[in-house]
Input
Amino acid sequence: MAFLKLLFRNKLAAAGLIIMGLVVVLAVLTPWLPLLDPDVTATGDRFKPPFSAGHLLGTDHLGRDLLSRLMWGTRLSLMVGFAAALIAALLGSTVGIVAGYFGGRTDNIIMRAVDMLMAFPYILLALAIVAALGPGLVNALIAVAAVNIPFFARNIRGVTVSLARREFIDAAKLAGMGHLRIIVFELLPNVAPVIVIAMSTTVGWMILETAGLSFLGLGSQPPQADLGSMLGEARSALITSPHTSAVPGLMIFVIVMSINLLGDGVRDALDPRLRSGALTRPRAVTQIDRQQPAPEADGASLLALQDLSTEFRVAKRTYKAVRHVNLHVAPGECLGVIGESGSGKSVTALSIMGLVASPPGVITGGAGRFEGQDLIGASYETLRAMRGDKVAYIFQDPLSTLHPLYRVGDQLCEAIRSHHKVTAREARTRALELLAAVRIPNPESRIDNYPHEMSGGMRQRVSIAMALANDPEVIIADEPTTALDVTVQAQILSLLNDLRRERQLAIIFITHDFGVVAQLCDRVAVMYAGQIVEEGPSQAILDRPAHPYAKRLMACVPDLGQGRRELEAIPGLPPAVDRLPDGCAFAERCNKASQACRVGSIELVGTSDGRRAVRCLDPEESLS
Amino acid sequence: MTQTPERDDQRPLALKIEGVSKTFGQPGGLLQKARPGVRAVQPVTLSIPRGETLGLVGESGCGKSTLARMLVGLLEPSSGRIEIDGKALNTGDPAAFGRLIQYVFQDPISSLNPRKSIRQIMETPLKRLHAMGRKDREARIREIFDSVNLREEFLDRYPHEFSGGQAQRIGIARALAASPQIMILDEPVSALDVSVQAQVLNLLARLKETYDLTYIFITHDLAVVEAVSERIVVLYFGSVVEVGPAENIFKSPRHPYTKLLASSAPVVGRPLAAPEQSHTELPDPLNPPPGCAFAGRCPRASQPCRTIAPPLTPIGDEQFAACHFPLED
Output
């Protein structure tokens, strides 16, 4: 049902489906329709024009009724086309799955054979097959199917190769399944949608190709009518009686057109990447929908978030990813934001510069001030000028943030030149300085490397160099060391620490690791279900956490050097942010929760000096 | 590596690995000759007594997953011999083999077929490995689900409906359904959040007691491996560099690499300092250095380290290190 809904959202595909449905229904009903016999000749009635008495579409060169021949011909052409598509899909997919699943030598031999088949011009190959087998509709069908096998084989092999390396296939092997069972029960259900998509886009071609062979006299034999042979027979009278060619020609056009429209629609509706809306282009800046005016500026922090709320609106659901977050950093300060997956820490960071993908992301309130200027709602030009120049980001996976096809030096130069008018030579000199600043050995030789030629640690250094390219005042680092090995992580952390001391950088460091917070951050904010539940100086919070969640989360982290032991765990899961409970979001998992914790909203209460704050009615430590 | 790092242990062996190595060839096409391959795992010799949890630590690319995949027959070793329960590894009868050893995968979601319901996933090993009837299967699934704290209503759902922690418990439940003697746990908690990670680790510890299992626990997280293992093997660049009891190996490491690992992990209460110079580069797998693979990064390296590969030698009672100049207490 969901599939049909998606299909009908595409107007053209819906039109294709309706027209195709009509043609198919008529073709199926043909034997029961009150039509004249398509094969009875009446030489007296040759070339009657359309709308003549008894012959709605006129007659052909032997006086046969064109309407009847058209209906029977369409029926035959459709049957041959679909049969050829089915045979090609069946054989081609089998070949593709076998090649992709077994890989290695099997794959090599099968696919080279398929390549050879593809190297022949297809019509020549079809002609050769028909020539060998003799003319006839069944032989034309075999030829068309054979010619299309390589298309299916290659498509399906590609999909199978990526699926066959997935862990669930290994798991099936270990569960005692043989190759045939794995192919049929594990692979096939995952490949089937691709086969359907490939078929829906090729049936049209196959009908055209069969018509082509019939047109050449190699398909259906007289007096049997199919669309191709009708065209072929009408060829000699093209000038004198054009309707004899136009009737089958139009029908071919209608069929192929509607099938192709429908096929595209089917592909769009079935493809999971398109279904999730990945191809809807996100806006350049996150959408803003502030319910209340932005709060007044307070204090003189370098970067401050005031009451920021961001949500994701997907269909009828609203996911409140960030709820009323207040944060600030000063020059040279490192602020840690810690939380588990889904706590809203990354969305908070991305909201600052309007980088949350919209749709579905919407900033619904608050302000993000850089030196007092509100960035929420700022124009794209303003933000673009500031992105990378004043506020720069470092992301988790350097392999996906660096462009694989450009040298790292060129990417660095581009980052510099997009904000400053400098010559290529100056940019390159600056890039070399930056690479040296992030301690890349031999920057002169490394600058011309492609990202894939560097190790993970080196790539992350390049990302940091890129973030530093325009001397930003704030760096927002979103789990920059999570994908790295511990020995490399230690190097990157100490590099960031040195940089902030040398350059008075403000760093917002997003992480899930308390060890990192303890070593790098001056202050830390703990997030849970989109809210800050505790904030304060790192050391104070690590020594004496006040919020039960912070305290218990720290207890879950095993410390090195304590030997074998039972670990602390927090039972349950964080709440889904589209169905948040009343009161404290942690109440359900908290062993101290009382009735009061489950009503209203619980405020973040700060100490009088404003250094610490906690969102809990019954904190573990009394802050004063 | 001829020495066998044995514990003074009378328990029967669950797993014996003798000189197992893996070289990945670089096959050419039809016309090119195969080029010399990448040594992913250097010959490894280990014995794992029944009931032990052996931790396997190392950084990415050190060969820990390759070694594990050889143990479960998903990869063919290039040399050496693997014995499970006293008999040579034999995947000829998949059903018999699957009842000996099972694998829990790192990515809990991708190890479950997206198009199969949890019930279908759970039934496969019971049908294929134990040839159970419908009634027995249902009872067994209920029993297993109970032991991994999953609700039975989950059985008719599909993998994408689960959180990482739940999916990992389903992965563990599937491995348990085979009733194996040995379970290979390949980074079973790396994809999980800290609060959920502890749930899964405690579950694994409890299951081990209940079902008398032997674990090989692969991870890059030193604190986790220390918390769950009896003995730990440290791998670097495809070789075992140190073996020792979990309670000692990070407290008093003998191999400089183990020491580097232990001092790199960020720990609350230890000031930030890069434990090594940033210009050290990892060795190139296509062109491995002669001698000790760690020599290029090692502060103690001297001439013999760059020419002779150090063998794994016993140091003290229970620890073994592959180093010419092992660290002292």
